[in-house]
Amino acid sequence: MTAELLEQLSRQTFETILLVGGPVLIVSLVVGLTISLFQAITQLQEMTIAFIPKIIAIFVTVFLGLPWMINVMTKFTKGIIENIPTYIR
Question: What is the pLDDT of residue 87?
Answer without folding.
Answer: 80
